[in-house]
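Hey, does this match?
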Amino acid sequence: MPLSAPDKSTGKWSGPELMLILGSSVSVLAILTIVASLLVRERSDTEESAARTASNIVNLIDADVLRNAEVYDSSLQGMIQSWQREDLKHISPELQQLVLFDRSTAAPYKGDLVLLDNKGEILADSLSVIPRDDNFSDRSYFKQHAIDPSLDLHVSPPYKTRWGYKDWCISFSRRMSGPDGEFQGIASAAMRLVYFKHLFKSQTLGKGSSINLITTDGILVVRHPDRDGKDLVGKDYSHTANFQRILKDGDGTFGAWSTQMQEQRLYTFSRVGNLPLIVVIGQSQEEVFAGWRRNVWLVGTATSVLCVGLLWLTGLLCRELRRRHRAEDKLASLAATDGLTGLDNRRQLDEAMETEWARSQRSGRQLSMLMIDVDHFKAFNERHGHQGGDKALRQVALTIANNIRRPGDKAARYGGEEFVVVLPETGIEGALLIAEGIRRSVESMPSFAGDGRPITVSIGVASEIIQPGDKLTAFFGMADKALYQAKNNGRNRVEHYAAPQMQNVAQA
């Protein structure tokens, strides 16, 4: 059944056309919603599964590294405690070496363990009974201990050893301090990075993934697998946005662009206990979501074939919805507007006042309000009838609206011949100036035919800085009292009411 154009005389679609639009749009939306939600859930499940697998590997590595670090730390503390014993000096050098370094034998992939004096000279050496003729004062960890009085375990950046295996190592070290905190030297134990290589190789990773150990200063300790055969040990990543986020969060998962790999990657990371080391697993999102993308293509193609015949009907419904939205907007505007004067109605005024009241409380800026009443309006109605009275109210409303300029100022019909003007961020001087302008403008309006008396208004002004605990009803009451004063003092005038706290400020 072909669709016909809408009836030009009424601008409305016929019943069968509306049913076709409704049926097709509901079908398309239902299909798209179901398919999209399933695909989004599948993508989320895929990402969670990849992150969970990586997190398990990270936790295993954390535990293993931390356990070995504790073994090294135990050796360091034992070395320091033994060295500080007076009776150690009275035994043979061979026995001294056994006493100092007995715990170190359990540490896997260990390098040399040494005790250094405050000049970097070797006091005791795990590699030989007679200490090597070497000086370690050029090492970064020695320099750090010399200036830092902390006795905590320190982990160094990677460095190349000068003895033994002569490969990449990191050092675990502790400071030795005298009775007054003076620097006496350090105890240091080297760990060969081959330990981390073996540990990382034992974990199963997907294509394009890598395991990294990096210091909290952004220095890469080890990466597996090597990238294009390049040795990246010691590379500084501290300036990269991804490392800054990892350092800030401590542990977790996020996806981001890798400037080094030039691709989107999924990073899972965790800090190793209290050590300044972070384990980071980077996974290629291209590989992580490869299977999901295939499913998207298959499901998307099938869904597109199913919906393509109904999409043009959805377009018709969109046009109808736009018309409906315009009509609803117009109705909403009418519901918020006084039908006689065109100003905001009482309901809109109440909403505006509550908003400005709360804003004034937060900002601490002054809020002012004008309450306006047309003088002798009952007598005016008796002389000119209700039509004349309505015309007069419209003219007064137009005059009030023309005297408020700022977008935030609000004018509303309060009821009968009463109007209210809300002036946010306006002090008493400004409010009185606006009120006087309204009074004069109303008084200057042309007189009605056969009536030599001008239309006038009485205006009450309230202004205060809203404090916690102040009541909006009390603020209205202040304006109403000021209006009563204006009417009681002869009408066609402006009176203001200052809150007690404002009076105290003026007296001060």
